[in-house]
């Protein structure tokens, strides 16, 4: 921004014919280098203050600003499932522990396993939160223990949220893997994954 100020002042010095430029008039009308320096310093401070506030307010101008994925916050629908059994409290506890919206995690478990603790998918995912064996090992949980399974599922979902910055992408990564989300730059164009995200988020 200092380069901008120097360029602006140089332009004013070179263009005394501008009738509406108080900056140019002040710089040109002064007969001494000392006065010009004082005027420049005054104008520089003024512009520095105004432009810096505008600069800070604009994320587009600031280098290194990380853009949120898709930049749209998603409202989480309420969990309205019929399951009210013993694992509901464990799922709520795991969600709260890892800072996940409770309704979101309950809807995930409903979609993943229908609250069946011994469910095994055709791909080999296990339990209430349908953890893959490799993922469970990395999380150091026993996927066949319902409470640990929920703990691992909540922790993994939060890891995906931290990685991608939105619950929509976190759910897509939970279902299709983080590599697929990175490859496609968003929710992968897989019918299963898109339906999965839509059923949990309601859109």
State the distance separating the first and last CA atoms. Answer: 43 Å
What share of the residues does DSSP label as strand, in percent?
Answer: under 5%
How many structural units, i.e. domains? Answer: 2
The CATH architecture of the largest domain comes to: Orthogonal Bundle
Radius of gyration: 29 Å
Helix content: 55-70%
Find the count of extended strands (DSSP E, 2+ residues).
0
Low-confidence stretches: 1-31, 50-72
The dominant shape is globular
Number of continuous helical runs: 10
Average pLDDT metric? 79
Supply the CATH class of the largest domain: Mainly Alpha
CATH topology of the largest domain: Lysozyme
Q: Order of SSEs, N→C? A: HHHHHHHHHH
Name the structural class: mainly alpha
């Amino acid at each position: 921004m200092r380069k901008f100020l120097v360029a602006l002042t140089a332009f004013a010095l070179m263009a005394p014919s501008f009738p509406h430029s108080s900056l140019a008039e002040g710089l040109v009308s002064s007969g001494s280098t000392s006065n010009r320096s004082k005027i420049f310093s005054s104008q520089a401070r003024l512009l520095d203050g105004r432009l810096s506030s505008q600069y800070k307010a604009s994320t587009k101008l600031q280098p290194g600003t990380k853009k949120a994925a898709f930049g749209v916050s998603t409202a989480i629908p309420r969990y309205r499932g019929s399951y009210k059994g013993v694992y509901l409290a464990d799922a709520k506890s795991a969600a709260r522990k890892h800072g996940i919206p409770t309704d979101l995690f309950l809807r995930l478990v409903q979609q993943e396993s229908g609250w069946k603790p011994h469910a095994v998918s055709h791909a080999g995912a296990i339990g209430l939160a349908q953890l893959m064996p490799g993922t469970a090992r990395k999380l150091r949980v026993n996927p066949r223990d319902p409470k640990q399974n929920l703990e691992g599922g909540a922790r993994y979902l939060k890891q995906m949220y931290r990685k991608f910055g939105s619950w929509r992408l976190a759910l897509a990564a939970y279902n299709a893997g983080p590599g697929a989300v990175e490859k496609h730059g968003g929710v992968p164009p897989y019918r299963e994954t898109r339906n999965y995200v839509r059923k949990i988020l309601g859109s």
